[in-house]
């Protein structure tokens, strides 16, 4: 991968650390996959390194080609916990640090989420957990233990694309003051384990870490080959597609004002992607059904009551979560919907830090927490079903090049030149159709 070592703006410290051998005193991270152990170790190390660096006021072109890397050779590592030999490379550390800041994510909170269990509750595993959401690309997805972040594997080609994308993405995020539904990219790494190179990118989770996602859709505005397969439908949380959405008569009921703001943001994002000749992106939609969640909560409480019946001792803590839940829920439900979710999406929370919010989210499982649920929009007053929607644009790195043009030609031969629903079309057509579909889907 092309790049320049971090050198300027007080960054010589990072340069000196290239390929320095680490000794046993460093912290171990235990995970059931060596790759995850190395990832956790790497995030812990790179965030600690950045805390000793003078952060420049402005990013320079070199920062978009910069990297820091480290080689670890330590025969003393217990191989059950950590591989003895591995390499970590972090791409564009200052760019991603700046993005985290603009998205209101504190570096220590990010490190906490990725590397260990901050709540010290035995039922929580500290390592990221594999998610079964792998798509056609074959990418693997992991969730941080607190479900705030997603770690996605990339190909070396995608890392190249990410480098060229970043140069445009960062200025766009600055210009929009973070008001975007594009993925929030937070860090990109190369992890070399047993001589094999793995590439991963960290992204903010679109869905809530405390409100259950009851239904999930991947929408492109295309109708050809856009149904969930029978195999997909067997999953606990299948990813449905455009035709499934239309057949079910699904709508996103958020009201006129919220719709206007949402479409404005979507249009700006799609225009940005079109200018870069990008396409094949999707709108990821998660639906939280409030009535169903209340029913699940009641059933869970009944099960817990049954389990606790044999223990008649008074507990001074009993009911504290429920008693405090009411007023907080009322306060959060009076929040002005998309006006906060989209307009102030990236304002760093001035109230509690994310670490505190993680604990809070476990108590207020029936309401939106604006600082955490930045993609959430509640259904409008008077909607037939009280729902909370989570919406964001995903998979934005596909360039309309030779491969996509060939795919379009193949589909045109199969379905005919006049079929509007083919997902592989040029970026302008794709963007126009995408916005039209979303406009009809939202009420």
TrEMBL record:
Annotated stretches, region: Disordered: 295-327
Domain PIPK residues, every copy: 31-442
Any one GO CC term of the record: plasma membrane
A single MF term (Gene Ontology): 1-phosphatidylinositol-5-phosphate 4-kinase activity
Keywords: ATP-binding, Cytoplasm, Kinase, Lipid metabolism, Nucleotide-binding, Transferase
Subcellular location as annotated: Cytoplasm
Residue ranges, compositional bias (Acidic residues): 304-317
BP-aspect Gene Ontology terms: phosphatidylinositol phosphate biosynthetic process
SUPFAM superfamilies to which the protein is assigned, alphabetical: SAICAR synthase-like
Enzyme class: transferase
Keyword Zinc-finger: no
EC nos: 2.7.1.149
Alphabetized Pfam families for the sequence: PIP5K
Reaction(s) catalysed by this chain's protein: 1,2-dihexadecanoyl-sn-glycero-3-phospho-(1D-myo-inositol-5-phosphate) + GTP = 1,2-dihexadecanoyl-sn-glycero-3-phospho-(1D-myo-inositol-4,5-bisphosphate) + GDP + H(+); 1,2-dihexadecanoyl-sn-glycero-3-phospho-(1D-myo-inositol-5-phosphate) + ATP = 1,2-dihexadecanoyl-sn-glycero-3-phospho-(1D-myo-inositol-4,5-bisphosphate) + ADP + H(+); a 1,2-diacyl-sn-glycero-3-phospho-(1D-myo-inositol-5-phosphate) + ATP = a 1,2-diacyl-sn-glycero-3-phospho-(1D-myo-inositol-4,5-bisphosphate) + ADP + H(+)
Name of the protein this chain belongs to: 1-phosphatidylinositol-5-phosphate 4-kinase
Biological classification of the source: Eukaryota, Metazoa, Ecdysozoa, Arthropoda, Hexapoda
């Amino acid at each position: 991968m092309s790049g320049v070592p971090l050198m300027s703006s007080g960054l010589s410290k990072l340069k000196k650390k290239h390929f320095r051998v680490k000794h046993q005193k460093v912290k171990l991270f235990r995970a059931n996959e060596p790759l995850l152990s190395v990832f956790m170790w790497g995030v812990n190390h790179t965030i600690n390194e950045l805390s000793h660096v003078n952060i420049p006021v402005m990013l320079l072109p070199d920062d978009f080609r910069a990297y820091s890397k480290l080689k670890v050779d330590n025969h003393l590592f217990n191989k059950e916990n950590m591989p003895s030999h591995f390499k970590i490379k972090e791409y564009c550390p200052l760019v991603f640090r700046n993005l985290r800041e603009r998205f209101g994510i504190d570096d220590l909170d990010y490190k906490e989420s990725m590397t260990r269990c901050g709540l010290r509750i035995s039922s929580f595993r500290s390592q990221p957990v594999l998610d079964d959401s792998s798509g056609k690309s074959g990418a693997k997805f992991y969730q941080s233990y607190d479900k705030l972040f997603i770690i996605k594997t990339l190909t070396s080609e995608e890392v190249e694309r990410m480098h060229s994308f970043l140069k445009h993405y960062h200025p766009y995020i600055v210009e929009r003051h973070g008001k975007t539904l594009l993925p929030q990219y937070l860090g990109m790494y190369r992890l070399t384990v047993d001589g094999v190179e793995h590439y991963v990118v960290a992204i903010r989770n679109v869905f809530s870490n405390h409100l259950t996602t009851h239904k999930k859709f991947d929408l492109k505005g295309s109708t050809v080959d856009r149904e969930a397969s029978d195999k997909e439908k067997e999953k606990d949380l299948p990813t449905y597609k455009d035709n499934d959405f239309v057949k079910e008569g699904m709508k996103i009921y958020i009201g006129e004002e919220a719709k206007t703001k949402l479409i404005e943001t979507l249009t700006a994002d799609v225009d940005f992607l079109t200018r870069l000749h990008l396409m094949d992106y999707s709108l990821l939609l998660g639906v939280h059904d409030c009535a169903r969640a209340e029913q699940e909560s009641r059933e869970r409480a009944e099960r817990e009551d049954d389990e606790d019946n044999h223990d008649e001792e008074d507990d001074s803590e009993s009911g504290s979560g429920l008693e405090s839940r009411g007023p907080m829920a009322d306060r959060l439900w009076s929040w002005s919907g998309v006006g906060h979710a989209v307009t102030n999406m990236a304002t760093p929370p001035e109230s509690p830090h994310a670490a505190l919010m993680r604990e809070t989210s476990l108590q207020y499982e029936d309401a939106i927490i604006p600082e955490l649920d930045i993609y959430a929009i509640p259904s409008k007053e008077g909607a037939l079903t009280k729902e909370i929607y989570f919406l964001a644009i995903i998979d934005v790195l596909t360039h309309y090049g030779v491969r996509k043009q060939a795919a379009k030609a193949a589909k045109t031969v199969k379905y005919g030149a006049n079929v509007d629903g083919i997902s592989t079309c040029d970026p302008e057509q794709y963007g126009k159709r995408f916005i039209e579909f979303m406009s009809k889907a939202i009420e």
